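worker-3 :: picked OLC1v1022005C1
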Amino acid sequence: MLVSPPLLFTMESNTLYFIVCLLVIPLYVLLAKGASKRLPPGSMGMPIIGQSLELLKAMRANKGEEWLKERVEKYGPISKLGLFGKPTVFIHGPQANKFVYTCDGNKLANHQPASIRRIIGEKNLFEMRPEDHKRVRGALMTFLKPEALKQYVGTIDEEIRMHLKKHWEGKQETVVEPLMKTLTFNVISSIIFGIEQGNRRDSLVKIFESVMEGMLSVPINLPFTPFRRSLQASAKAKSIIMELVHEKRQDLAKNIISPKKDLITSLLSIRDENDLPVLSDEEIVDNTVIVMIAGHDTTSILLTFLVRILAKDPSIYAKVLQEQEEIAKSKANEEPLTWDDLAKMKYTWRVATESLRMYPPVFCSFRQALEDIEYEGYIIPKGWQVFWAACMTQMDEKIYHDPKKFDTSRYEEGTKTPFSFVAFGGGARSCPGNELARMETLSMIHYLVTGFKWKLCCEDESFRRDPLPVFNQGLPIKLESKLSLL
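worker-3 :: tokens ->
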């Protein structure tokens, strides 16, 4: 739970005054710089906190989009507010998405809130200037591009089979969300870290759960706050990953492991024209954390929603099952899935895409203006934060007919309005891990529908955003194993 204003004011007044001064002075300077400019309409809210608590409260009630729609109705598609300790401009619509994803990186930079930036680290992909972003993204894509990922289909297949045998087979009831997190963490641990199942994996998964707690919070580093717990967990995670970096560098030097064993070995093996490392150890650690967080939570959320969708709509389940059974019939017993098998799962991926449209794992994102930027007749001052919820366009009835209806036919002709479907971002900064997410999602759904039947246990399927979607009861289901194809 976030620290509330009443709790803060129970602290010793001198300590509180010192903290407030440290936070308010930089904020005051930025506001003063923007005072004489043509700023968007809107209120900055309370000092330091701004509208942070209001937004987080709305997200936790799964009303974040409604809260932002009210702003749009009141102020229009551009307005100013205060979020997470910084003056902020909120922008909305397909044009806003296009502006963010195509704007010159020397004008508008990836810049997450202080809470995210301090927890993940300054050397991560989302914080880099264009020249560094290009270098680091290029290094990541040598591993995450489809041609490179093909060799890991078998690894994903093996992890999924082990997971289902351990956690699903023989069970009459189970809770989906935590199991999907377990699965995606195991897959990512194998492919990103190269860590086998055991104590190291078990300790890392608990640490990363703590890292996520304070990702979107007021960045006040005080005892018992989510931000403090996340900072501490992040330091532990980075220490473990740095140990892995050192171990793998030694193993590579001794030719004990392949440069393509996992993401870390891949990044360590990339050299420039002078045979020097392309990435520093700190860049490897911070960007491994980014890939871990993105791959772990977003894919597990997508899989959880797909289980719910398939349980609620028998017609969709039947079509997915038919597609997957045709693939299963072409396989010999115990033969793993291949890249070509995944390419045949076209309808299943349309179901996943529609799920991403209606239930996007990531609700909002941030950038920072590196210079004064004119947008829609207003000035976004240098140093201000740009905030947008790109996924709001995915439920816009002006773009999608009957947007609350689950309709896979929307993707048979493609998206009509550019930058309206942005589940994987857009432009040069689109998500580098989208192919890995597709591989993992399709493989898991294949084994689920061919190996199990299920139905929802309760009517309460509601979820909150904290900041990612979390089902209130974890989505419990009644489970029935088919003749084992695992």
